[in-house]
Amino acid sequence: MSTVKANSFANTSGVPYYPAACMVTLNGTGTISITGSDGISSITDNSTGEYYVDFSNAFGNTNYHMTASARDNASVGSSRPKVFALRGYTDSTFSTTREMIALGQSNTAEEIDSTKVTGVWLKDF
Amino acid sequence: MEHTKYRVIFDDPDRLEEPTKVLVPAQQWLDQAMAGELPPIWVYWQLQDDEQRAIDEGRHEDFEHDPEKHALQWTAPRIGPLTEEEAMEFLCMKDLPRRCWAEEHNRPMFKIVRTEQVPNDRQFRNAWEMTL
After folding, report:
1. Looking at chain B, which terminus has fewer C-beta neighbours within 10 angstroms, N or C?
2. Do B18 and A60 touch (CB under 8 A)?
3. ipTM above 0.90?
């Protein structure tokens, strides 16, 4: 087993290169809490089923890769939460600094919370 | 599970009809702040301002941060270790809508509270309005 250690990265032309990856798993029920995270500075409980994630460092542009998923919420009958939106702070634009995860019921789209919501953002290399 | 000591409750001055919001700091970020690994706050504001300007001018679709300004997040001189309370104040200036704290309002727009002071019941919390 060996360990790779580096203080900085650069491409073959010597241009500095800053890897960026952010991930969070949160519990959106009760008092919202973070289960685990990397590369984020905070989350915000905006309202039922709406969570903002602020990145520790801004991405260079909005061409990053992202995905999110949510666990079934057994307290909401047969309905299953579905991630129906990932977006920036304003309705129409993504942002290099923060992202919103919105959950809705799969049958009605009414917003609901989930005990386990995970989001991952990766820089576009 | 991350067990951070503080939360920030706040109202967005641009969206006062929405419920009071709760911000939760990330443990890793707090650790970095307390270890003195953060750049000055203006590094973040500069990036936020550049992006907002691009949005306002309708050129956000292909927006790219200036590489030098973007790199300052890693290369600017570090501000040194913060206490947990100072780190929470820094976080407010970084992640809250700027109008929350940069402008005067006729009532408080945000408050840093202990985690156990935040009600567990969302319906109760949604009925809140921040007061003096």
Report:
1. C
2. no
3. yes
